[in-house]
Amino acid sequence: MTETDRPWVMRTYAGHSSAAESNALFRRNLAKGQTGLSVAFDLPTQTGYDADHRLAKGEVGKVGVPVAHLGDVRALFDRIPLAQMNTSMTINATAMWLLALYQVAAQEQGATPDELTGTTQNDIVKEYLSRGTYAFPPDASLRLTTDLIAYTVTNVPRWNPINICSYHLQEAGATPVQELAFALSTAIAVLDRVRAGGQVPPDRFGDVVQRISFFVNAGVRFIEETCKMRAFVRLWDDICVNRYGVTDPKARRLRYGVQVNSLGLTEAQPENNVQRIVLEMLGVTLSKNARARAVQLPAWNEALGLPRPWDQQWSLRMQQVLAYESDLLEYDDIFDGSHVIEAKVAELVEGAREEIDRVQAMGGAVAAVESGYLKQALVASHAERRQRIESGEQIVVGVNKFENTEPSPLTADLDTAIQTVDPAAEAAALTSLEQWRAQRDPKAVEEALASLREAAKGTGNLMPATLTCARAGVTTGEWAGVLREMFGEYRAPTGVSGSVGTSGGGAEIAAVRAKVAATAEQLGGRLRLLVGKPGLDGHSNGAEQVAVRARDVGFEVIYQGIRLTPEQIVAAAVAEDVHCVGLSILSGSHMELVPQVVDGLRAAGLTDVPVVVGGIVPDADARALKAAGVAAVYTPKDYDLTGMMADVVDVIRHASP
């Protein structure tokens, strides 16, 4: 094996409960042969809230590790030498804050900033489209992104200050052409902003381009995904040369990491997810000239809940078998000269260029976010994908075909087939936060926040003031709170109102439309469904598809987007006089948030308004929710949205006096 064919960086995406528990998991994974860290942060950390904020209730430690201050980062990387570690942090709105904490913690270990290697995701544009963990309006968010890029190019030169993230675009329904075009449009928006900002001298702009990385998705259509990545290489090289004048081929290289597709993982027959993950891994490793620089694989049971350490180990071993047992790394690019591959690559390049031109004509990626164009396009393409699955046109093994199955020993006990977050994690985080605030110097904190406020008023780089805050003991919520105060808050377009669902819809749609109409006539008015997303979970794809299908079958749909408190959802149910409330939660906070909505409706006198829940809900939790008054629970195995709508009508009929 030659030096140039050494394996990619192997990671698992990990973090939960607390900094100490996540540190133990990191060190176990490194001991098993993992060669880099990929840190998952919980939703309060990602959106800039401390554990004691009302929106953080039920979310602390659920989908990642809570980081409130420098002490948490010290604990998170305890006994892990950061000067020698390649660390990827999936963090966007608060990326500047987390890198500041990381840099200070590394310096306390004795590392210098120029020794640090890793990546902050820091792609805020896709947060408005798919994940929903934005904190500030687009223009202010782009300032934070570009300030971090300018700072790292000079001060942390081996760090990747952003990876333009197309992964979540595919999760939100993007076609390969849309994934290419929207990601590259984001890259153009960021690079144009950095170039216009004047913080980086023109003769160093090539250094900026060279540090741009990408984080992509790989679906199960691995030939198409291979072609997508070869198209990515070609398009990026063209942009670097013709838009930014980068002449060094090394600086123009497409540098990307990958997490293979989680959207296609199924709750039904979840053992099939293993072969899906392997095929998806091949899509980003087979082509040497478009091979990923880092790979992290999901676990077979991610559609069921949080993977256990053993599940993560299984996914790591998949990578190791491919890299060390197969002959993959011994050959040049095996697709060079294939007319089939070349034709597909050319088709993707042409389609992506047309879409990039369309976005640029609108004023660029940020303008296309603010107008709702990008979100509407994703919601529409996702609706088309769902319809293909429901009709059987797109086969999903074990879901809409080959559904007969032997009992699986992997899921014989579903309650132990996933890892559960310690219910005491949130209380521990609150205690830790209180202790941290009590032991720090209040005057230093006040002065640091004042310097951040002053910096935000001007146009200078915000990173120096952010580093001062990190060293003074400021918390995540305090740092973000000052910037919310200065920049304001924002609600992104939902993409639902302008999206087309099923066209005509066939006999099933017609039957449910008739059922909705008949029930509405019996109840004396059009049926109204409130679709709500309580808490900080910004993964709104499922909620959007439910909203679109409900509208298609004749419901009047009230959908106000993400990040609502239970009180806001109850108030909307009262104001809109709804017949049913549908709650969507994928972050694991359903046991805390759903009962609050149910109790709130009862307190408001809406005892005849049923609540239904959708999300990744283990069986034991589903039983508990139903015992607490929830009428129905839907999970990823319930892929038939039209059938779900018929069921919701029955729920409304049963609840009506």
UniProtKB/TrEMBL annotation:
One of its GO terms (molecular function) is metal ion binding. Pfam families: B12-binding, MM_CoA_mutase. Residues 526-657 form the B12-binding domain. It is an enzyme of class 5 (isomerase). InterPro entries: Acid_CoA_mut_C, Cbl-dep_enz_cat, Cobalamin-bd, Cobalamin-bd_sf, MeMalonylCoA_mutase_a/b_cat, MMCoA_mutase_a_cat. Its EC number is 5.4.99.2. Its cofactor is adenosylcob(III)alamin. Keywords: Cobalamin, Cobalt, Isomerase, Metal-binding. Belongs to the methylmalonyl-CoA mutase family. Heterodimer of an alpha and a beta chain. This is Methylmalonyl-CoA mutase, large subunit. It comes from Kribbella flavida (strain DSM 17836 / JCM 10339 / NBRC 14399).
